[in-house]
Design goal:
alpha+beta, elongated
Length: 158
Amino acid sequence: MKSRLRFTANVSRFDVNMSLHFIGIPDELVMQMADKFPFRVFCTIKSHRFPAAIVKHGLDGFVIQMGNQTVKAAKIREGEEVEVLLEKDETEHGYEMPEEFEELLLQDEDGKEAWDALTKGAQRSFLYYLCSAKTQETKIKRSILILKRAREIIAEKA
């Protein structure tokens, strides 16, 4: 299986009233990367790199969905033809683990246990929030909040 693919595609929108844009990916390219779907990749368009999932889209094939934030950051628009680089995501959570959070997990055994008990999707959502922080101070504050919330979620399930 290939770990990287490069191709060109048009940016489309699911529906005029929806904010989700997408890029269609030819079946033959997708099959070169994986045989189980959905699967995670890092997508680069116009030097903007972002985590994404390749998902089946009805009978039309496979797509990468992009919200308005990603479309704006990549400086793309509906109908534009773009070069796309896909790299198979080999990370555990779909985001690089910030060192501030890694350090906190090493110091807080109960917090690590609560973190590990969360679903992969919940962990990915928290990491998205954490990685969007611009300063180290904000990352540290958010790391503490995330572990507090992870404990609360686990307690609610018990």
